[in-house]
Amino acid sequence: MPQHDVLIIGAGLAGQRAALAAADAGASVAIMSKVHPVRSHSVAAAGGINAAINPDDDWRSHAFDTVKGSDYLGDQDAIEVMCSEAPNEILHLEHIGVTFHRNATGHLDLRAFGGASMKRTAYVADITGQAILHVLYEQLMKYSDRVDSYEEWFTTSLILDDDGACVGAVARDIRTGKLETFAAKNVILASGGAGQCFKPTTNGLICTGDGMAQAYRVGGHLMDMEMIQYHPTTLVENGFLITEGARGEGAYLLNANGERFMESTAPNKMELASRDVVSRAEQTEINEGRGVGPNGAGIYLDITVVPKKRVLEALREIVNIGRDFAGVDITAEPIIIRPGQHYIMGGVKTDINGATNIPGLYAAGEVACVSVHGGNRLGANSLLDTLIFGRRSGEHAAARAAGLPMPRLSDDKRREDQQWIDAIIARDKSGRRVSEIKEELGETMNQHVAVFRDAEGLETALEVVRRLKEEAKTAYIDDRGTVFNQDVLGAIELGYMLDCAECSVVSAIDRTESRGAQFRTDYPDRNDDEWIKHINTTLNGDGEPEISYSPVTMTQWQPEARTY
Amino acid sequence: MAEEHKPPQDFTLRIRRYDPDAGSGAYWDEHTIQLEPHRSVLEAILQAKARFDGSIGIRCSCRAAICGSCGVRINGEPGLACHTHLDKAQAGSKDGVIKVEPMGNMPVIKDLIVDMDAVHWKKIRRVTPWLINKQPIPEREYIVDATAMVDVTQSMACIQCGACVSDCLSMEVDPEFIGPAALAKAYRFVGDPRDAEQHERLKHLAEDPAGIYDCTHCFKCIEACPKGVAPMSQIMRLRRRAGSDAKVNDRNNGHRHEKAFTTLIKDNGLLWEAELLPRSYGGDSWFGKFAPAAAGELVSSLPAITTALLRRKVTPMGALKPHKIPKDDLKDVQRIYKDVEGRDERVEFNLYISGVDEDNEPPTVEEPAAEEATS
Q1: pTM
Q2: Are A373 and A435 in the same domain?
Q3: What DSSP state is assigned to residue A49?
């Protein structure tokens, strides 16, 4: 049985950063992921990473922008940690080899981004996530004698001891189908978001809420799950992301009349208001008949106003995406976009060290909710979140491990999971296909738990999600093999997604106000008297989410009206 | 405006299947799906998986050519399934059926899934794939030239999909060859001004018999790469850095061979094969053949030369005298040399920097032709 001080599940930016930090702190470390680390969805982050690194900037300004962006739902102590540690983290990345673009004097160049009061986004063209992820993986290869890597291993369960502490996990080697128990003094969840609950989404097929559901199933708190970010610029065609960097470089949003409609919503920041604000403005244009393209369901993003040389140097990836996936040359004509599901602000509730309510269980990155994003995440703050809290989790877990004996585990959980998997594989074909249920879930969520919400739609969504949960119990698959049985993993992932979706819908119903990404047409105002609090969901004895509340930490900034 | 999209139509996929559990060989499996023609081959496979057979194995995640998971061969050509449109794939097939197979040069695990660890990642590890910092590490960022960072962005754009490895002809012949992806990765450090061991790296890559001089210049990796990394161009840049800049006279005779090649073309306008071998070993002049290394190589090549003579591949006169081209053409060739060698700085073709045909800018000059035409 493999034994480690720190077992990290997920190998995107948060996971790899945690692994390197824990190893540096002297812990024995394993990092495990259901895909090869460089396939992790951090790879798709395009525009950049925020830090008040310019001498004229101040981390407090970054923190305030983040608080305001969160619509005052973010915990300000956590935001202070993230923003004040940001410059050193960027310098660390630069030192280990990230090829950040430079300005004319050879210093880090910074670009404008949404909701930010000055240019503070460091970037590598529009492949920033890819560049950082690949450089961290370079470091992981360098650390290969100190960090054990379990690539293409799928976690099925977390293991708790009798005292309720997390002491390991069960995982399946995807290549062989073999299940194994991993003992660990600490487990760090870094397995990303749950965007696949929505269709379409900018998220990869692997973003199925695994870590959120795994924590939820053993008593973890899922917080702010109603806060789901719709990114203002995704391709109408297929939901692919067009980076906010495009607007950062100066691109316009235009409606069918050729108007820059952001003028009326956000006269100062225009296209660079917070994402929730821009997405709502776009959706309003579309709903009121000023959309463009098929069924008027889109908005023009006009990148032609950015000099072509700059586009090719700094926005090359979206030139490719436009050409290959929409048949549009973005340097010559506008491209049609619309708001699309992109990020979940909510996740496993943690403190500023990544610790959850379960001793020995940490979470960092999109799977977690510290909460630094509150009701709405600023662009280029997600990479920062993964790295800061990935590192802090790794360090904290390593320190905690130093005082603990290696847990002694039985093989019970592994046997239990084996029976679970065998039963899925053995199901007869009388129910629905797993793929059908996933499809219906995605469409339902995207219809009712999107930019604009109301009680009726949310109740419908809840009904559907609960029916799908029932149907998932008998849903069947085709693959009965052991080697790379992606079908059976898909069935398990469906269960994870349904748990996450249920928590999101229940929380959205409960929050009878509009804040950040949650806009209730039946409760269109922000209600600071009652709703400056986090909604937490925990699994109750009936297998359903139970709601509780926790306060929002305020340090320096009191709620104000939010204008851009 | 965006091209008008056509309605969904039928496409048939012929997928190479292999189930290691079954204990039998690989076989072909056909599925017909319905999608708009501009949708990707990956979407077609996913539809087949969702509707007909969930056991079809393919790695995939982002669907947008960023994660690098879905490298396959489509109609025999390597690429990403998500990056290939159905209509184009169909047009490129022999019988209207889109053939999808696992990538080459790597062992198949199941269906379209290959063992990248056994080949691709092993090779990546051979090039010491991490930055070795120039000391002292500055308190803030390293101050480096803006273009240097944009320059290495081309190799940073590699998504490690393995498409170039799949069809690397040199690797097929010499499985030890470090290969296009790993060498592109190597350039990412050699071109990075923050790296302390550029010279050491170049020396290793040049001296390694499976290193930069093992590439035969077939362009296959440039065609295969979905991200414009152009691995072969990065290999050629490594050669120029190793041979011309770092003056590594490698034991593989790679650099001497390149020099002999370019000198012969400069002098004659065409290659003079009989001179190429002795000069590659003995040095870049007519006297090269009298160097002991060249003499030895010539003697050991006698059987091959004899066979070539007997089969009339070479005539005695053709071997002893250079090929001739008209005088004016020779002057044209030599003018190219003069242009290229007369520049203050070497022009490197880079997607992110100079791959733009801006209307007001002078046209971008491609790689120096003579240097490119080696091996």
Answers
A1: 0.94
A2: no
A3: E
